[in-house]
């Protein structure tokens, strides 16, 4: 009778112990807040603009609860704000590596253009890789924009907005 009871206890406890091991290795998807930067275009006769913003990916999730295993970029969007400035063209770099180029009508970018679907944006894979590696390692990420417009003088209040959307993969600590 004792042997049957002991066997029953072992059979009942083993799956529970294995379940704890399995749940510890689950990968969890974390949609990080978008990395957003707004680049004002200085009013006047200069058609060129540039700027940068820095993001610490560790501030985008609870680093005390998760350990990152990887990341992926699921979109980058470029948008414009302000009246028509003709054609806008430029580059976005991440940590000094080209992420993408954009070139098209200012008015097309009044609706955010997606890296996934826009004919006006071209990605550069090494820049995507740098962004993913920086998120995974928790390194500071600096986005730099350089560009120009074809219509001057530029009125006050015009800007270009860059947004990067990243998903991280993590497990519970």
Please explain how this structure is put together:
The chain is α+β, with helices and mostly antiparallel strands. It has one domain: Jelly Rolls (Sandwich), CATH 2.60.120. The chain contains 2 helices and 10 strands. The chain is elongated.
Shape field: elongated
Fraction in beta strands? over 45%
Please count the beta strands (DSSP E, at least 2 residues each). Answer: 10
Question: In percent, how helical is the residue content?
Answer: 10-25%
Question: CATH fold name, please?
Answer: Jelly Rolls
CATH architecture term? Sandwich
Quickly name the level 1 CATH class.
Answer: Mainly Beta
CA-based gyration radius: 24 Å
Number of domains: 1
Low-confidence parts: 18-23
For the sheet with most strands, the description reads: 5 strands, antiparallel
Task: State the helix count.
Answer: 2
Provide mean pLDDT, rounded: 87
* Structural class assignment: alpha+beta
Order of helices and strands: HEEEEEEEEHEE
Give the end-to-end Cα distance, rounded to a whole number of Å: 42 Å
Task: Describe the secondary-structure layout.
Blueprint: H1 2-24, E1 28-31, E2 35-40, E3 48-55, E4 66-81, E5 87-94, E6 97-105, E7 113-114, E8 121-123, H2 125-137, E9 141-149, E10 159-172
Antiparallel strand pairs: 1-10, 2-10, 3-9, 4-7, 4-10, 5-6, 5-9, 6-8
């Amino acid at each position: 009778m004792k042997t049957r009871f002991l066997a029953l206890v072992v059979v009942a406890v083993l799956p529970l112990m294995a379940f704890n091991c399995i749940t510890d290795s689950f990968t969890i998807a974390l949609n990080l807040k978008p990395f957003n930067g707004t680049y004002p275009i200085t009013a006047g006769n200069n058609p060129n603009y540039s700027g940068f913003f820095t993001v610490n990916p560790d501030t985008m999730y609870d680093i005390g609860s998760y350990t990152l295993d990887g990341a992926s970029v699921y979109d980058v969007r470029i948008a414009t704000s302000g009246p028509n400035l003709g054609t806008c063209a430029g580059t976005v770099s991440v940590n000094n590596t080209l992420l993408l180029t954009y070139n098209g009508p200012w008015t097309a970018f009044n609706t955010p253009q997606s890296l996934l679907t826009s004919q006006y944006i071209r990605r550069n894979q090494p820049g995507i890789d740098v962004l993913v590696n920086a998120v995974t390692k928790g390194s500071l990420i600096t986005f730099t924009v350089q560009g120009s417009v074809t219509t001057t003088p530029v009125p006050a209040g015009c800007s270009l907005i860059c947004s990067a959307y990243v998903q991280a993969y993590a497990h519970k600590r």
